[in-house]
Fold:
Amino acid sequence: MDNWKKIVRHERFRYLDHSEKKFFHGKLYTALTSFAVDDVLALFVNGSGSAPAVRLWVHPDTVVLGIPDARLPYLKKGVELLAEHGYKAVVRNSGGLAVALDAGVLNISLVLPDVKHLSIHECYEAMVSFVQHILWDLTDEIEAYEIVGSYCPGDYDLSIGERKFAGISQRRVKDGAAIQIYLDVEGKGVERAELIRDFYDVARGGEETKFDYPEVNPSVMASLSELLGMELTVDEMKKRVLGALQELSEEIVTDEFSEDELEQFAKRYEQMVKRNEKVDGMQ
Structure:
């Protein structure tokens, strides 16, 4: 995508490194909190003086479920299996299906204003190009297409040598968009995929379903460290993201949430809590 910098570049960017946060304004900082935060950033990025944002987040041992996953016939058994492996389940409010997060997975949220003139595909492609840019000196082999057999498959799966290491989702709030990507940086992608495969096996229970859930093949997934044959860390990836952001903006700010943003956060957080009542009740 040749024009990705025109989409991503802004004079002023808000940079929020939430990767080591434990609490956020009195709330335990979980993936549930993260999705509420992104909603607020997308809501305020248009016409409120709030700058476009890049937010980094990491959550230990969490499986983020998509809305269709919450309709699995034996969801309770699937959630129990995740709990047995030490994983919490959270249902997100953006697109996609189940994804495994842990300390070796870096999530990047790119929050952009005035996206009404941009297609969903253009925003996805901008994120693909952004990731290719931050890794330009390590590889030129990153491709974007659906990796069949991966978890949370989609047209914008990122892979090297036909093995997936990242997936993208998108959440639009009014005229703002939070484009979210998970990057398997460290650890073993196969082990994450085995967990999601086992979750679906249990939660489907062999029944026919209206929705076509993925048949996960762990061999088609890997971490960036595995694919590049080097010990790439989450901390190094964070530095690369910040470096790219410095190229694409004149000023970087680290503003905390305003009172208005905090008010909306409380509302969005409660919406996420309500969305997750069914899953929380299973644990």
User: Anything to note?
Assistant: The radius of gyration is 18 Å. The mean pLDDT is 94. The chain is about 35% helix and 20% strand.
